[in-house]
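Incident log, structure service

09:12 report received: a user says their structure output differs between two submissions of the same chain.
09:20 pulled the input from the user's history:
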Amino acid sequence: LMVQAGPVVGVHLPKDRVTQSTQGYGFVEFQTEADAQYAVQVMNMVKLFGKPMRINMSAQDRRTQDIGAKLFIGNLDPTIDDKLLYDTFGTFGPMVQMPHCARDQVSGNARGFAFVSYASFEAADAAIQAMDGQYLANKQINVQYAFKKDAKGERHGSAAERLLAAQAQKNDRTL
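09:34 re-ran on a clean worker, output below:
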C-alpha cells in the first residue's frame, strides 16, 4: 500500500510477544524524507478495512514537536471526529501530529474538546484567526493556543517559544 507514495526501504510491524499478533500499527521507511512527507499528505486518514489510517512522521523525525504550535479547540459537537478535524484544520498548514478529540476513557463519549498541533506558528495563527468563533457541526467553537502541560497557566505560542522555533528552524537549515 505504501509503495504508492514512494520507494519503500523497509517495513516493521511490531507483534505481541505472547500472541504473536500485530499490534495495529507499523513503521515504513522510505528512501527519502520527501517520499515520507508525501506519504503523510496522501495516505493520512485513508480507510483500510473500514478504519482510517493515521500516518505520521516518526517522533525522532519531528524536531519541531516540542516547539510546535499546539491549539485547543473547545465546545465541539459530540459528532466531531479526528477525521473531520484533520480535514478542517489541515487546510491551514502541515500538522506535527494528528488532531485528537478527547474521549471519556470509560464510556468512549466525546468530551467536547480536541487538540491540533501544527509545524509552524504561522499555520496555528491562521487557524485561530479563521476558525475561532466559527460554527462546526452547528456549534460555535473556540480556538486558542493550548495550555502547556508543565507550566501553570502558560499557553503555547508565547514570544519565547516562537523565538526558539525560529532558532531551531535556522539551525536545521544550516545542517
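09:41 both user submissions now match this output. Likely a transient worker issue. Closing.
09:42 reviewer note: The chain has four helices and ten strands. The radius of gyration is 18 Å.
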